[in-house]
Write the structure tokens for this entry.
Amino acid sequence: MIKPSPWQAVFLDRDGVINREREDYVKSWQEFVFLPGALEAMPRLAGLEVPILVITNQSAIGRGYVSAATVNRIHTRMQAAIAEAGGHVDQIYLCPHRPDEGCACRKPAPGLLLQAARDHGLDLTRCIFIGDSVTDAMAANAAGAQAILVRSGSQGDRLDALLAAARRSGAMSRQTPPICDDLPAAVALLHEE
Ligand SMILES: [Zn+2]
């Protein structure tokens, strides 16, 4: 008998989890490079049979480095490539704002997670967010969701220290999330549960 997934949905950060993060932002499909094993991990993730939703800060839009239309085209191609590999991304939630705009959707704020929960009728305590930065864990924490962090983003080896600092500051009240090397390892961890 197949054990039902304990999760209602999986949230994924984009840059540093699915694709290689760029200091100068991903501004075209040519600059969108899947991380090793990430594309192959998507069908395995789909095996959980729950919605897979991307939650991403794209301040490059607000900064004027790339248009919202271009980012949407990049996402259409990303979803097509993932579908071709046998996986799926059901919806993409993005914050286009600059940090100084003080919006409610830029992570670590939980706005995008709350919106996704409303759209998909999710109990956030039964959702898991795979991210690469402490702000992803903080957004999950603020939304009442669980998190797994991966080292394939820019915070890499600094994650433990940054998480400890977030805990000391009170920004992380929940359980410290497990840290995996990359998306394939995080997906393997989800399958063990
Ligand atoms: Zn925003």
The radius of gyration is 16 Å. The chain has one domain: 9-192. The pocket of zinc ion is lined by residues 95, 97, 103, 105-106 (CB under 6 Å). The longest strand covers residues 52-57.
